[in-house]
Every structure is written in C-alpha cells, then in structure tokens.
Amino acid sequence: MNKLLQVTDLSKNYGSRIGCEGVAFDLYPGEVLGIVGESGSGKTTLLRCLSAQLEPSAGRIAYDMRTQGLTDIWSLSEPERRMLMRTDWGIVHQNARDGLRMEVSAGANVGERLMAVGARHYGNIRTEAEDWLTKVEIDTGRIDDLPATFSGGMQQRLQIARNLVTQPRLVFMDEPTSGLDVSVQARLLDLIRTLVNRLGIACVIVTHDLGVVRLLAHRLMVMRRGRVVEHGLTDQVLDDPQHPYTQLLVSSILPV
Ligand SMILES: Nc1ncnc2c1ncn2[C@@H]1O[C@H](COP(=O)(O)OP(=O)(O)OP(=O)(O)O)[C@@H](O)[C@H]1O
C-alpha cells in the first residue's frame, strides 16, 4: 500500500522557542494516528504544520496527491494547497466556530464544500447536505438554521459533516471532543469512530485524553517538549509504555 503522508525531520520554532522538533512518521490510507502529550508539548504546533496551516521551520511533509504521488506540500502553489485543504483533506477544529461559517445556514456549511469540488446542481447539493445532517444525527428540519442556534455538540457534528462531505482521504482533528459534556463527548466519539471506519478515512487526532486515543487511534505518538518520546501501536503504548514520561502519563490518567 502507498503511503498517504510521509513526514521527515519536521521542526517548527517560534523564535528561540521550540514548537516541535525532529518529528518523522508515515501514515497509510485509513490509518488513525493519535498524538498525545501534556499542555505545551507541541501537539497543536505539529498538527497545524501537518495540515499546512503553519509553515514548518525545517523538514518535509509529503502527501500522496491523486495525480502526482508523494509531493512536498510546500512545493505546491498556494491555490493548489488551498484546494487540497478544501477537498482531499478535512480539518476539524477544537472550537467548532473556527471550522464553521457562522453567518450561513447549516445546509450551506455542508453544501459549500461540495461546491468546492464542482457540485452545481442546487437540488443535489441540498439532498446531499440533508443526507449528511442525518449521518451526524442532526434533524434535517434544522437545515436552514444558523449554526449559532445549535448546541456545542451539534455544532461539532455539523463541522464533521462539513469536513467529511467531500469524502476526504485525510482528516486532521484537534481535540474534537473537548469542551463538551461527558455524555455528549461519548456519543460524538462513537460517531467519529463509525464514520472514520466506514469511510476508511485516515486521521491525525491531537488530544490530551488517552480515552479518546484508546477508542480511535491505531497508532499513538507521545510528545514531550516538542519531541516524540514514544511511538507505536496504541494498545502497546498504553498497556506497556516504555518511556518514563509515557509511564507517568498513563499511570496518572488510567486506573491501574
Ligand atoms: N504562536 C506562538 N508563538 C510563540 N510560541 C508558541 C506559539 N504557539 C505555540 N508556542 C509554543 O510552542 C510550544 C508548543 O505549543 P503547542 O500549542 O503546540 O502545545 P500543545 O501540546 O498543543 O499544548 P495545549 O495542549 O495546551 O494546546 C509551547 O512552548 C508554546 O508556548
């Protein structure tokens, strides 16, 4: 199987401060990679670099473009990169408001992404938007409502629908369930797991919640002070952590 993403020696500095340093990994189609670590360990910096929202200071991020194969994403033109981000990739932000257009309806939020990949027929776009609202458990009667009238959990589900409607091959998620009630979190996680598995989407998920990665991620990277200190199969890393920092993280969060 071809690699979907190949990351080599990736670093991002903010002046003299290290955001992340020397990160390298491959991601294959359909694979879910979790990135965990304490606050300030570089998770968000890494995710923003991987998803082309932030230009790295050094290193290479190559993505398997449908026509060109593995291509350095920073060798693409700005419009090409933006197109990639709008179609073949999805980015689910921690705060749904950052990933939604709050001034247009729920249906338009979903339909807009379809238009980015060339859909023009209003009736088809609306039908597809309704279909996706149903998939993320939002009543289709709310299709013309503004996202601001939705609850936090509904906004997050709408953001997921907006991202998945174009059938991306890779989705980046930054703490997708934080800030929600525990019961809402559990349902949302279950929904993400079902959709990601059913559609065979590759995912990179940043979280500080080991329960989230246990449920969703095939592989896990543990970060500390900008560097990856441990990387392996999720169950292996969580059940038999090798690095002292991972041992501390696991013992402090998971009941023994
Ligand atoms: N815009 C910025 N300017 C300067 N330093 C930054 C900036 N963003 C992040 N940093 C620094 O980079 C390091 C990594 O931060 P980052 O936000 O990536 O960590 P994180 O693991 O995502 O933390 P959290 O879980 O709290 O969101 C920290 O030392 C942080 O202070």
UniProtKB/TrEMBL annotation:
Gene Ontology molecular function terms on file: ATP binding; ATP hydrolysis activity; lyase activity
SMART domains the UniProt entry points to: AAA
GO terms under biological process: organic phosphonate catabolic process
Domain of life where this protein originates: Bacteria
PROSITE patterns on file: ABC_TRANSPORTER_1, ABC_TRANSPORTER_2
Keyword flag Nucleotide-binding: yes
Domain ABC transporter as annotated: residue spans: 5-250
Keywords for this protein: ATP-binding, Lyase, Nucleotide-binding
Coiled-coil annotated residue ranges, if any: none
Name of the featured protein: Phosphonate C-P lyase system protein PhnK
Organism listed in the record: Oceanibaculum pacificum
UniProt lineage: Bacteria, Pseudomonadati, Pseudomonadota, Alphaproteobacteria, Rhodospirillales
